[in-house]
Design goal:
18 strands, 6-stranded parallel sheet, homodimer
Chain lengths: 394, 394
C-alpha cells in the first residue's frame, strides 16, 4: 500500500494549515459539505466520516453503521456515493461462504457517485465528475497482471470490502453500501452523462464480469451464445451478447423469467427445471457463460457447447469450489475456464459501451432499510434483476 | 450392436459345415490351435474359449477364470493375446470406483498379439498379423464422433471391459488379461514389426491417452510442457513430448523417480512433496497434461501454465469427480479440459510414431500370478512404469 505514504509524511504544520482552512465544521460535515470549499482538490489528512450498512456476523443481516475512511491521499479521490447495487457476492462474503470475515464489514462493490475531492497528484478526475467504483480499490500497478491491465489478478489487489488495508481506519476495505468512499484514482471509472447513476452502478461488477469474458469469446454476428443463470450477471451477459449480434440461449431455473428473457432479446429461454432439459442443446452453442453461483452439474452444462468450444464460469460458489465430472467434461471436449471481473481499462470500456449502446441493467431502486429483504430475494431468485440502493437513505 | 447379426443368421446347415470342417478338437482347442487350419480366416459361429484373470468383487483381487467369447463375426478378428499391460483404470473400475460392476469381469485394455482368425468381411487384417486392442471394442461408426474419428465419444461405444455387450456370452465385454479376444476389426490396430509386443502394449491406452491431447497442444520445438503424475501415462507423456522437441517439466510426488525422469529426457523433475513446490513455476509453462488419477489441488497445478494456456486432465479420479477452486482457476486464466483416450486412427498413429521414433514405455514383464502384487504396487506408486503381463502365463 503506497497510496497514503505522502500524506503520512505531511508535517504537522501542513496538517494545521489544511484543517484551519477547512474550518471547525469538518468533524461533523458530510464529505460533500467538507469538500464543497475545496474544489481545487486539496486533500485532507483527516479521516473521512462515512455512514453505511454493515454485516456484524455471518447471519447475513445488515444494520446501520458509522465509520471512518482514510484521508484522501495524493492519488486518491473521494466519491460521494449516490447509488450502490447488490451483488450475490456481497451475500456470499458476508455470510462467510468464502472464508472467515472481519466485522463490522460494509459490503458493496458496485457504486457510483460524484467526486467530492481529489488528491494533489490526481489528474484523471476533477471534483464534480461522475465516477464509479467496482470490485477493486488498489493493486501494485507494477506486476505483469497490472501491466497487462488485469489488475484483478495482481497478487496485491485490494478488493473493495473485507480485504486487509493498512490505510483504512478499520483495518479492512469497506464497501459501497455507504455514503462515500475514498479510492485510488486508478480504480475509479468515469460514468458518462448519458447513462443514469442507478443504471450505471450494476455495470461495475455484473457488467464487467460478463463483458470481459464475452469480449474474449470474439462475438461475431450470429454466434450462438449460451448464458446460464439469469440473475444480475446473467441478464447483463444476455443483453451484452444480444447487443453484439449474438444469438442468445438463456438457461434459467425460473419459469417466471421467461418473458423478461425474451424481451431482453434472447433467441430462446430454456427452463432447466430438470437437467435433462439441456439434452436437446447438446453441442449446439459456440460459447457459454455461466453465472450460477452455487454447485451444479458442470459437465452436463458444458455439453451444450460444441466440441472444442469454450465455457466460462463467472459465478463463484461457496468456498469457490466446483465439483465436475471429468469424464463428462472429456466427452463434451469443452475448454472450461473461469473469469474474475475484469481490469480497469475494460471496466471503463463496458461502462462506455453500455452508455453508447443503451445496454442498461434491469433495476429496482430500494431504500437502505430494504436491504435485508432484498438480500433474501436475491438468495431466493426473486430479484428482477439488480437491486440498487439509494445512498441518500443510508 | 450390429457386429454379429450376420453370424446369428447363419443357417444350421452352414453351422454344421463349419464345425465339421474344423473337427472334433474344437471344443477344447486354444484359439490358435483352432484356427491353425483356417488361415483363410473363415469365421466360426462357435463361442471362443478364453482363459484369464478376473475380478469377482470390489476387493481388487483377481483370480483365474475360464470363460467364453463370442464367435468371430463377419467384421471381427480373433487375436491370440501375447501381452497385456496394467493400467490404473483397471484397478479403479474393478474396485467399483467408477460405479457398480458386473462380475466376474476381466480387466485389461492394453493388449497385443497375433491375429488368429478373421471374419469373412475383414480386409484390414489377415491371419498372422500383429495386432493390438485398446480401450474400445465397438461403436456405432455412424455418428458425428465416429465420423470425426473420435469413436471414444460415440454414445454407443463399448469399452473393452465391463460394458453391456449382447454378443458376449457373459453379457459384458471382457478385457485383455486373457489368452485371446474377439474384436471388431475397426477397433484393432496394426503393431509394426519394429516394436516389441511387450513394449507396444502400453501404447494402447497410456500411449494414445497422452498422445491425443499432446498433438492438440501443437507441440513445437522448445515449447514448455508440464507433465503431472509420472506413472504409466505420465512417463509416456514425458517421452512423447521430449520426442517432439518440447522442454518437459515433470511433476512427481515420488523422489525415487527423479533419476528416471531425467533419463527420459525431462528438463526438470520437480518433487511436489508439498504444494508450495509449484510456486516457482507459476505461469512458466505453455501447456500441461495431468495424469493424476485422484483428487488433487487442480487450481494450484493449473497455475504453472501461462495465462490463457491450456491444461488437460487425463487421469480419471474416483467417481470421475474433480473439485476445483474456481477463483484459483480464474487467477491462473487457464483453459482446463479433459481428454479420454483417442480415436482409432490416432491410436494407429501413436503406435506407428512410437515404433518409428523409438519411443518405448519403460516396462516390467510379469507372470499372471503376480498381477495382484503388481496392482498393489500401482496403487502405492511403486510401478516403474508399466507392468506387462505375459499372456502365456494365464
Amino acid at each position: 500500500m503506497k497510496t497514503n505514504d505522502q500524506d503520512k509524511e505531511l508535517s504537522r504544520r501542513e496538517f494545521i494549515q489544511q484543517t484551519a482552512a477547512i474550518g471547525a465544521g469538518i468533524m461533523f460535515a458530510s464529505s460533500s459539505d467538507l469538500f464543497a470549499e475545496t474544489k481545487q482538490g486539496r486533500a485532507t489528512n483527516m479521516n473521512i466520516k462515512s455512514k453505511g450498512y454493515a454485516a456484524r456476523d455471518t447471519s447475513g443481516t445488515l444494520t446501520p453503521w458509522e465509520f471512518e475512511r482514510r484521508p484522501v491521499g495524493d492519488n486518491d479521490i473521494l466519491i460521494d456515493v449516490k447509488y450502490a447495487s447488490i451483488c450475490h457476492s456481497d451475500i456470499h462474503q458476508m455470510k462467510g461462504h468464502w472464508g472467515p470475515q472481519q466485522y463490522p464489514q460494509v459490503p458493496g462493490h458496485e457504486m457510483v457517485g460524484v467526486v467530492a475531492a481529489i488528491g494533489k497528484k490526481v489528474t484523471k478526475f476533477k471534483v464534480g465528475d461522475r465516477a464509479g467504483v467496482g470490485c477493486m480499490v488498489d493493486s501494485c500497478l507494477g506486476c505483469e497482471s497490472c501491466k497487462d491491465e488485469e489488475e484483478q489478478y495482481c497478487p496485491k489487489t485490494v478488493f473493495t470490502y473485507g480485504y486487509p488495508e493498512k490505510s483504512s481506519p478499520t483495518g479492512i476495505s469497506q464497501g459501497g453500501y455507504s455514503t462515500n468512499i475514498v479510492v485510488r484514482d486508478h480504480f475509479a471509472v468515469h460514468i458518462p452523462d448519458k447513462i443514469s447513476f442507478p443504471e450505471a452502478a450494476p455495470l461495475l461488477c455484473a457488467g464487467i464480469t460478463t463483458y470481459s469474458p464475452l469480449m474474449k469469446a470474439d462475438l461475431k454476428k450470429g454466434i450462438k451464445v449460451g448464458v446460464a443463470g439469469i440473475g444480475g450477471l446473467g441478464h447483463m451477459a444476455l443483453k451484452l451478447a444480444v447487443s453484439k449480434g449474438a444469438e442468445v440461449y438463456a438457461f434459467t431455473t425460473s419459469p417466471g423469467k421467461v418473458k423478461d428473457i425474451l424481451a431482453f432479446g434472447a433467441k430462446e429461454a430454456i427452463v432447466v427445471d430438470n437437467i435433462s432439459k439441456l439434452a436437446p442443446y447438446k453441442g449446439k452453442l459456440d460459447y457459454m457463460i455461466c453465472t450460477i453461483p452455487y454447485q451444479y452439474d458442470v459437465a452436463v452444462y458444458t455439453s451444450v457447447v460444441k466440441h472444442y468450444g469454450t465455457y466460462t464460469q463467472v459465478g463463484m460458489p461457496e468456498k469457490f469450489e466446483l465439483t465436475l465430472n471429468n469424464l463428462g467434461l472429456s466427452i463434451s471436449r469443452v475448454n472450461f475456464n473461469a473469469s474474475l471481473i475484469g481490469g480497469m481499462k475494460e471496466t471503463q470500456d463496458v461502462v462506455n459501451y453500455c452508455a453508447d449502446h443503451n445496454v442498461h441493467p434491469q433495476i429496482q431502486i430500494i431504500k437502505a432499510e430494504q436491504v435485508n429483504e432484498a438480500w433474501e430475494n436475491v438468495v431466493n431468485k426473486k430479484a428482477r434483476y439488480r437491486y440498487v440502493i439509494d445512498a441518500a437513505t443510508f
